[in-house]
Amino acid sequence: MNAAEILLVLNGLEPVDTTGWVFCVVTHGAHHYWDNSAQQMRESKEERFWPFEKGEVLVLAGEYEREPFGEGRKPAKWSNHEHHFKDLSEALACREAVLAGTWQCECAPEPVGEES
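and the corresponding structure tokens:
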């Protein structure tokens, strides 16, 4: 068994084209969330990562930047910030820095508002 065979099975026995696939690391969460009871967006001082985890490493496919298998999540849809890498070792180094609190980038959102 090898990775190519596993991808083939996961893709319904159809060939898998990995052109344009990237590794993605969730670096920052959103500073807002949907309040179901009030039916409106609320701001949050704390980062919210749902449905992802801080430092989570994903594989994103092609121009739609979604997971190619599983739930097909798309980080940008949830207002999470992420960085893309072609190299897994770079993605893993980013993950370690994110989890250690030493990751620096210009995209880091500023906390705003009061959480209800």
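(Above: one complete record from the training split.) The first helix runs from residue 3 to 10.
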